[in-house]
Write a structure and sequence with these properties.
Layout lengths: L2 H13 L3 E2 L14 E2 L2 H9 L2 H5 L2 E4 L6 H9 L3 E5 L7 E4 L9 H4 L2 H7 L1 E3 L1 H5 L6 E4 L3 E3 L4 E2 L5 H11 L9 E4 L5 E2 L14 E3 L4 E3 L17 H6 L1 H9 L2
Parallel strand pairs: 3-4, 3-7, 7-10, 8-11, 10-12
Antiparallel strand pairs: 1-2, 4-5, 5-6, 8-9, 12-13
Length: 243
């Protein structure tokens, strides 16, 4: 077992005590990023931060622990860009001006997002304003903001596509929301395509990271899993755009 796999197994054992099961995957943390006890407090910490306060367009990953944040963003009049599960049906935009207020909570869910949100292809995203702020959940993260996800690489691909479209860059704030048991003390070494968080919000703490690394590359085609290329339509769209 490699180091990241051993970290995942250790964290998942602790997380099971505080995690909320997924309706499809129960406690199979290899398939989803869990919501957890105290998630409301972590979200409250995030929305008090100026990066959230100043943002108009936020990219929020489709993680269970961020459902309440997507709902709050719509209530606050902010547009939310997100992907479907495994990015298999691409990107969707939740624009509060296009959704009835009584559907905001439904829109914040993965099922509701696809019913009341608007699908957007990469050409449409390229014509949008830059993303002001990016928020992600993750499997584990250390005090230097280096994340360990489920091991599938979806966050790296999301950043790579948005970077190549010019919608995110070195100055785009990236924050993570996790439970305290997912916060690691150990040293981790980021890869060239890893996006380091500027801030980490837990139910009890806010960790500020100095000099968070942001990849200065798009999709590394020679390192991309062929299965991801075959199952993620926006990757094929990006390839056709020669970006």
């Amino acid at each position: 077992m490699d180091h990241k796999s051993s970290v995942r197994e250790r964290v998942w054992s602790d997380l099971r005590r505080v995690a909320l099961p997924d309706s499809r995957f129960d406690f199979d943390f290899a398939e989803f990023i869990a919501d957890f006890e105290g998630g409301e407090a972590a979200c409250d910490r995030l929305i008090a931060d100026e990066a959230y306060q100043n943002a108009e367009l936020i990219f929020i990953t489709p993680d269970n622990c961020l459902e309440r944040l997507r709902h709050r963003a719509l209530l606050d009049g902010k547009s939310v860009l997100m992907t479907t599960y495994s990015i298999k049906r691409g990107f969707w935009l939740l624009d509060p001006a296009e959704i009835a207020p009584d559907l905001y909570l439904y829109a914040a869910t993965l099922d509701g997002m696809e019913r009341v949100g608007r699908p957007v292809d990469l050409k449409a995203i390229a014509a949008m304003p830059p993303v002001d702020y990016l928020v992600t959940g993750t499997g584990a993260i250390n005090h230097e903001g280096i994340r360990i996800g489920k091991g599938h690489g979806f966050s790296d691909v999301e950043w790579g596509m948005l970077y190549r479209l010019g919608r995110v860059g070195p100055d785009t704030p990236v924050d993570a929301v996790v439970h305290d048991c997912q916060l690691l003390d150990e040293t981790l070494v980021p890869d060239v395509f890893d996006t380091t968080a500027d801030l980490v919000f837990t139910p009890t703490r806010t960790i500020r990271v100095a000099d968070a690394q942001k990849p200065d590359c798009g999709i590394l085609w020679d390192r991309l899993d062929p299965h991801m290329f075959a199952t993620i339509p926006p990757l094929r769209e990006l390839k056709a755009m020669r970006l």
